[in-house]
Amino acid sequence: MPPSEQARWFAEEVQPHEPELRAYLRARFPSLSDVDDIIQESYTRLLKAQAEGGVRSAKSFLFVTARNATLDLFRRRRGPPVFAIADNAELALIDETLGLAEKEEQAYRLEVLEEAVRALPDRCREVIMLRFLDGLSYKEIALQLGISPETVKVHMVKGMRRCTEFFTARGLLQPLTAEKTEVSA
């Protein structure tokens, strides 16, 4: 794309979303002090992807990229992860029909899921993996681990709650408000 055409595309398709992007970042990440840096990084990634022909929706790509750049920043500040990432060959492959932004989003969510499961206590992690990876029932898990089905249920609830908290802390889920919990009760 010639520079003048790229500048026109940027001015028409990207720049009008900056105020909304700023508001989104401030609302989603209130502790973020580097909003300008994140926006510039997002623009850089967007322009690179556009040059490679991978952007179908500038707004969607911009928002996903800004969120990912913010999460990258928080991860760098937090330091190296406690657990090494294992070979994820057994995990589902990313659908090749997805766009670049969707692939990045799916890969990130998979990485966070791996971290969340690794952060669980040993027995809780065992129960979660037997249930979701091996597809065992609560009774089958109880027999295999030599515990009661009720204990399996307790570990499942604990594991799901901790994974939900893990995702919420990383901005992948909205925190439950009192209003939402009353409606679902």
Amino- and carboxy-terminal Cα gap = 54 Å
Q: What integer is the average pLDDT?
A: 79
> Structural class, from helix and strand content?
mainly alpha
Overall domain count: 2
Poorly predicted runs are 80-85, 90-96, 179-185
Could you write a compact summary of the structure shown?
The protein has 185 residues and is an all-alpha fold.
Describe the structure.
By secondary structure, the protein is an all-alpha fold. The chain has two domains: 1-80; 109-176, Arc Repressor Mutant, subunit A (Orthogonal Bundle), CATH 1.10.10.10. 69% of the residues lie in helices and 0% in strands. It has nine helices and no strands. The chain has helices at residues 3-14, 18-28, 35-51, 58-78, 100-118, 122-132, 138-145, 149-169, 178-184. Helix 5 (100-118) crosses helix 8 (149-169) and helix 6 crosses helix 8. The longest helix has 21 residues, at 58-78. The radius of gyration is 20 Å and the shape is elongated. The N and C termini lie far apart (54 Å).
